[in-house]
Amino acid sequence: MGVRKNIAVAASAEASRDRQYIKSLARGFEVLRAFRSEDRGISNAELARRTGLPKPTLSRLTFTLLSLGYLHLDEETGRYSLHPHVLKLGYPVLSQLSIRELARPLMQELADKVRGAVVLGVRDGLSIIIVERARHRTMATWPLDIGVARDIATTAIGRAYIVALKPDDRAELLERVRADDPGRWREIERGIDTSLQSYAEKGYTVSAGDWVPEFSAVGVPLILKDGTILPLNCGIYSNRVDAEKLKDMGERLVNLVAELSQIHGDNPTGQ
Cα angle at 170 between 156 and 123, to 5 degrees? Predict the structure, then answer.
C-alpha cells in the first residue's frame, strides 16, 4: 500500500510540472477524495487538515463544488457531505462492477415474470441511488432509473437497507432521519417498524403506495462479504397488485438475492 501511495505521489508531482496540469481542478478532486464512508459531515477546517490546502483556498473550492451540485451543506452545522450527483462521475466504472453484471439477467427475468420493475441501489446519505434496473416492457413510466435518488426511510428499497443494518448503525441513521424530517417522524417510524417486522417474519420489506400511491414494491437487502449493503427493489403499478401479488413478488425477490449471493459468494443475510 505504501509503495502504491509513493508511486501515486511521484506521478502527481511529475504531472504537476506539466504545463497542461490544472492545479485548481486537481485540488477540487483532492477535496472530493477527502471524504470517507464513515463521515457524517465535514467542516472546512477538517477538510483543510485532510487535504493540506490553505483554508481560504479550501473555502473557495467547497463553495464551487457546492454550486456545481457535488457537495451538500448542512447549514445548521456548517458541515459538508458528498451529494448523490458525485455518483454520476463513476457511472462508467459502475457499469463494470461484477455484481451488476451478475444481477442484471436475474433482475430482468424477475421483472418479466411479475410484469414489473427491479432495481439495485447503493446508499448515499439519506438516499438510495439506483445503479442498475430492469423492467417489463409495460413499465415504461416506472420512475426509478439509473442515477435516480430515492428517500431511504419511506421506500421499500430504502427500508431494505435500513433493516439490514446493525442495531447501533440503524439507530444512528434513524436519528439523522428524524432530525431531517421531524414533522413526519412518527409516520416514518411506524413504516420502518412495520418493515423490521416484515423482514424478520418474511425476509422482505413492503411499501404499498407509501412513496407514491401509484406504485407498490417489496425490498430485500444483499449483504456483501465486506459488509456493504446493496438493497434491491421489485415494484409494480398499484392497480395491478394485491396482498397475494406482493407476497409472490417478495418471495421471488428473496430467492433472487439468495441466488445472486450464491453466485457472488456472499451471504444475503450477512450472518
Answer: 55
Please tell me the pTM assigned to this model.
0.64
Q: Around Cβ 26, how many Cβ atoms within 10 Å?
A: 12
Strand 205-208 with 215-223, pairing: antiparallel
In angstroms, what CA-CA distances link 110 with 25, 33, 248, 250, 254? Answer: 44, 37, 11, 11, 11
Give residue-wise pLDDT tens across range 128-152: 989 899 999 988 777 677 888 888 9
CB 192 within 8 A of CB 162: yes
HSE (CB half, 13 Å, CA atoms) of 92? 1
* pLDDT tens profile 180-236: 899 999 999 999 999 999 999 999 998 876 666 678 899 999 998 888 899 999 999
Render 108-129 in DSSP notation, one character per residue. HHHHHHHTSEEEEEEEETTEEE
Asked whether the beta carbons of 134 and 117 are under 8 A apart, the reply is: yes
88-264 CATH fold: Beta-Lactamase (3.30.450)
Domains 2-82 and 88-264 share a fold: no
Residue 35 CA to chain centroid, in angstroms? 16
Domain boundaries, the chain: 2-82, 88-264
Q: Any idea which fold 2-82 has?
A: Arc Repressor Mutant, subunit A (1.10.10)
